[in-house]
């Protein structure tokens, strides 16, 4: 059990912030009545009111635990915000409810079977909230003393820590010294140490030290030195996913596999054991199941075997809410010769609630472009904004959004004042890069000399039918 606690650190490592296609999205932008907000409170979301409301309603049901084991399909044309809404849902749920996002094609891997990959995705999306009593040392650091032996091989040390009422000296082992160094703990910090796992938490700087300017930055948090006993017992709650418990307990993989992401297949017997154990914890009141959300993007890439697995998995006792997204109309189901709406077999389709996303109006497109420009630190002139909006409605929103960063580079290159992007910069980028329609046309003309199965004829139609 001691190991399981450290998994919360994992999340911090894997969640890196960067400017991605959806980094402007911070939630669904709904108010308490699930009405979409606009303006600065919209959490980066524009338009698509119906789909957002529906998504909000679903989340409400997830939070109230009314909807596990069901499936939702988001259907709509390309770049109409299906993935964006899913990201918004993930943000709204927060870190306590697991949200797993996979693309259907990830299921086809050489290192494990399709059903194993799906099972892992399912179990990643089911949280177990475990309550534990741990002993905690909490106080203000008075002094850290580290003695290195001459060879450097052995390090010992002592930590003096106090509350307002008492002071104690603890001997430090190498592991604790490393942890203290890693967290950059210095005298005057108020910290808490989990005795079982050795995890150190920096709570802030002591008020008494608020005059030590050299050790404080702009974002330094000052806290009161705790009073009373140094050691206290405290109930801590942490949420881990069933999959994390599986991996940690599978003897061949062990804890490190979680970092590598290379978990391999997990034996069904082990899973059964873990389910049993979790069941016991639940009965003893030590743990609670938190069904989360599994989002499968581009779900039409799954094949008939995966779909039949989904059908069954959804009916099991421990099942998350499954949200799928597809941009296909009538499409062939992989692994069969049938066609079916959205590329989903009808029996699965029958079990899902369908949320549709619609094409954007010019007004919405303009607002989305503005948000993306702010996100990418790019300024467009008014005319450029109008042109880019027109481009988006004639090509696709995604193409237009992709042009933003290219146009910025072009504008900077010609030393435009303050890097302002103008119509010409956009025009140049438009001529540099084909959009989907022009590429279809180019290929279709047959003059490009490309090798094709049917000389490029009807490429577009084929693709839509795939
Ligand atoms: N309502 C919206 N508000 C803000 N940004 C949006 C909205 N809808 C889409 N976007 C942005 O537009 C881009 C394209 O949208 P998205 O990737 O969500 O489309 P999609 O429906 O998943 O398309 P596909 O079917 O091709 O996967 C993304 O960068 C997304 O963040
Ligand atoms: Mg998408």
UniProtKB/TrEMBL annotation:
Record family assignment: Belongs to the RuvB family.
Catalytic reaction equation(s): ATP + H2O = ADP + phosphate + H(+)
Subunit structure: May form heterododecamers with RVB1. Component of the SWR1 chromatin remodeling complex, the INO80 chromatin remodeling complex, and of the R2TP complex.
Organism superkingdom: Eukaryota
Top-tier EC class: hydrolase
E.C. designation(s): 3.6.4.12
Localization, UniProt: Nucleus
GO biological process: chromatin organization; DNA repair
Protein role: DNA helicase which participates in several chromatin remodeling complexes, including the SWR1 and the INO80 complexes. The SWR1 complex mediates the ATP-dependent exchange of histone H2A for the H2A variant HZT1 leading to transcriptional regulation of selected genes by chromatin remodeling. The INO80 complex remodels chromatin by shifting nucleosomes and is involved in DNA repair. Also involved in pre-rRNA processing.
Alphabetized UniProt keyword annotations: Activator, ATP-binding, Chromatin regulator, DNA damage, DNA repair, Helicase, Hydrolase, Nucleotide-binding, Nucleus, Transcription, Transcription regulation
Keyword Transmembrane helix included in the entry's annotation: no
Coiled coil: none
Protein name per UniProt: RuvB-like helicase
GO annotation, cellular component aspect: Ino80 complex; Swr1 complex
Record Pfam families: TIP49 (PF06068), TIP49_C (PF17856)
Domain named AAA+ ATPase: residues: 68-359
Molecular functions (GO terms): ATP binding; ATP hydrolysis activity; DNA helicase activity
InterPro entries: AAA+_ATPase, P-loop_NTPase, RuvB-like, RuvB-like_C, RuvBL1/2_DNA/RNA_bd_dom, TIP49_P-loop
């Amino acid at each position: 059990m001691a190991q399981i606690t450290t998994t919360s650190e994992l999340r911090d490592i894997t969640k890196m912030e960067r400017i991605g296609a959806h980094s402007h999205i911070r939630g669904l932008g709904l108010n308490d009545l699930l009405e979409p907000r606009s303006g600065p409170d919209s959490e980066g979301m524009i338009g698509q009111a119906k789909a957002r409301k529906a998504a909000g309603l679903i989340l409400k049901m997830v939070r109230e635990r009314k909807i596990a084991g069901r499936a939702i399909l988001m259907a709509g044309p390309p770049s109409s915000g299906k993935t964006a809404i899913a990201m918004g849902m993930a943000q709204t749920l927060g870190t306590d409810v697991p949200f797993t996002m996979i693309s259907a094609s990830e299921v086809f891997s050489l290192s494990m079977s399709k059903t194993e990959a799906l099972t892992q995705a399912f179990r990643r999306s089911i949280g177990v909230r475990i309550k534990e009593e741990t002993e905690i040392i909490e106080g203000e650091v008075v002094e850290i003393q580290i003695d290195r032996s001459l060879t450097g091989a052995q390090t010992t040390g002592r930590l003096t820590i106090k509350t307002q009422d008492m002071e104690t000296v603890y001997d430090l082992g190498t592991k604790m010294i490393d942890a203290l160094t890693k967290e950059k703990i210095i005298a005057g910090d108020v910290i808490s140490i989990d005795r079982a796992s050795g995890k150190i938490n920096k709570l802030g700087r002591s008020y008494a030290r608020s005059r030590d300017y050299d050790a404080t930055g702009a974002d330094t948090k000052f806290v009161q030195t705790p009073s009373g006993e140094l050691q206290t017992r405290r109930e801590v709650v942490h949420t881990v996913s069933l999959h994390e418990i599986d991996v940690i307990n599978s003897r061949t993989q062990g804890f490190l596999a979680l970092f590598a992401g290379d978990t391999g297949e997990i034996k069904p017997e082990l899973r059964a054991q873990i389910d049993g154990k979790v069941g016991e914890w639940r009965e003893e009141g030590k743990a609670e199941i938190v069904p989360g959300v599994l989002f499968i993007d581009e779900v039409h890439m799954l094949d008939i075997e995966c779909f039949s697995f989904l059908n069954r998995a959804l009916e099991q006792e421990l099942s998350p809410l499954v949200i799928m997204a597809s941009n296909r109309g009538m499409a062939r189901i992989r692994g069969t010769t049938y066609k079916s709406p959205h590329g989903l077999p009808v029996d699965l389709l029958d079990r899902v609630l369908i949320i549709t996303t619609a094409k954007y109006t010019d007004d919405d497109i303009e607002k989305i472009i503005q948000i993306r420009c702010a996100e990418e630190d790019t300024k467009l002139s008014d005319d450029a904004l109008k042109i880019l909006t027109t481009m988006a409605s004639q090509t696709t929103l995604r193409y237009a959004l992709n042009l933003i960063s290219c146009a910025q580079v072009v504008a900077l290159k010609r030393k435009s004042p303050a890097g302002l992007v103008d119509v010409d910069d956009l025009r140049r980028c438009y001529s540099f890069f084909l959009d989907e329609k022009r590429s279809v046309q180019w290929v279709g003309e047959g003059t490009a000399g490309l090798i094709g199965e049917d000389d490029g004829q009807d490429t577009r139609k084929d693709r839509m039918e795939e």
